[in-house]
Each structure stands twice: as C-alpha cells, then as structure tokens.
Amino acid sequence: MTRLSGAVRGVVAVLVALLTVTAASTTARANADPVAPADFVALRTVDPTILQEMRYFTPHNFVGERIDGYRQPICILTRPAAEALHKAQTSLLSQGYTLKVYDCYRPQRAVNHFVRWAEDLNDERLKGEFYPNVDKSRLFEDGYIAAKSGHSRGSTMDLTIVRLPATPTRPYVPGEPLVPCHAPQQQRFPDNSVDMGTGFDCFDTLAHTLDPRIQGQQRAHRTLLKSTLENLGFVNLAEEWWHYTFKPEPYPDTYFDFPVSARSLAHRY
Question: Is 240 known to be catalytic?
C-alpha cells in the first residue's frame, strides 16, 4: 500500500511539473513581443553611411527619459522607405552632405508614453529646451502630441543633414543647463546638423518648414532637405522641418507595436 501511494505521488508530481512547464510556456508566448513584418528592415543594412542619432533611446528628448519600446538605438523602416532614403543619401553625398536620422519606426507603446507624459502637467523637465514658449496644457490642442503617429506605420522618419566630414555630437548630460531650441545655433545644444533655424523636436512655430522668419542659410538648408526628399516621393509635414513620410506607404492604416530592436527583425535572418 505504501509503495502504491509513493508511485501515485510520483505520477502526480510529474503531472504537476508538466502542467507548470506548459503554463509557463503558454504565458511566455502570450507575453512575447510582436515582430516586424517581412518588409521592415534595419536602415543600416540598406545604407550604412546614413548617420543615426536615435533620440528616443536617450534622455535627450522632450520627455527627458528613454521612451518605451526603444530597446536599441537603431532605425527601422519599411524597405521601400529605406531604399528611397538611400537614393537621397547618394544625392547628398555628392554635394558634401550626409543624412542623419533622429527617429524612424516608432512603436505604439512609445506614442502611449508621450500621451501619458503630456497628461502629467507637473513633469516639465525639458521644457526649457523643447517647448519654452508653449504651455504644456496645450500640447494636444496645438497638435504637438497625438494618440497615433505616422511613425508607427513604418515609412515616416525624422531627419536632418550634416556637412561632411561629420563631427560627432557630444553626449547629452542630464541636468545640464537648458537652452531654447529656437536660440541661435551657437547657443543651443551642439548638434552636428547644419543650421536649420531650430533644433529637432522644437515645439514652436519657427519649426514650421516654410516659416517666413527663417531665411538665409537656414532656409537654404531646409530647402535642400525638402527638395532632395520630395524628388524621391517623400512628403513633408509642414509643421516640422524634420518630418517626412515616403509615399505610397505599404501600411497606410496599420499602427505597429513591435519594439525597436534587432530582435524584432531577427526572425527573418
């Protein structure tokens, strides 16, 4: 009788272990991150010469911390957008410039992070640089923050041009004195971009691509970026000199949420 009870206990223990492993495996699958569709690529595999300064992987952005979903500082785009960007880079290289991307595909969880931050009116860590003249309570109404972003569709990027030879942008130091993004270039954060009149992600009407107050060399730089990209099928967002979308988009109505990481693409290699 004792031997039988021990055998039964052994079978029960095995069954419990199997059930535990199965449950854990099921939970892991349920919690697994989504992956990118087959036609998404890392930009560096299409054009390794385009500079990448992925701001949302760092605390140097209007929120002041790394944004949800940015696990590696890499640019991911749909292949058509990446290949068109390569053509733009070829044109600019012949003129002594290079492209530099600040942001590319952006997961929906990152957009959700922006929304949560915008709703917290007490968090104004980087106001002095990125939105010095805008009351944070107006970020939704003025269109600076929204619940959806074209970046999540995979064919939109934020970018600038850099004169060659490119010098590295120095690292941002959290807590360093803030200078308004619309200040003269020699005063604001020392980005290695040519002077576009404002810094990247500047929440100000001076960032509107064709704002009439932007003249001279600053306007010439914006025009160079705009004409180069528009000739290849990109469309500019008029309120942001850095924001372009390649048309036609492969996913005009889909907002993806896979993380920004090589692993999101690794299933295909």
Answer: yes
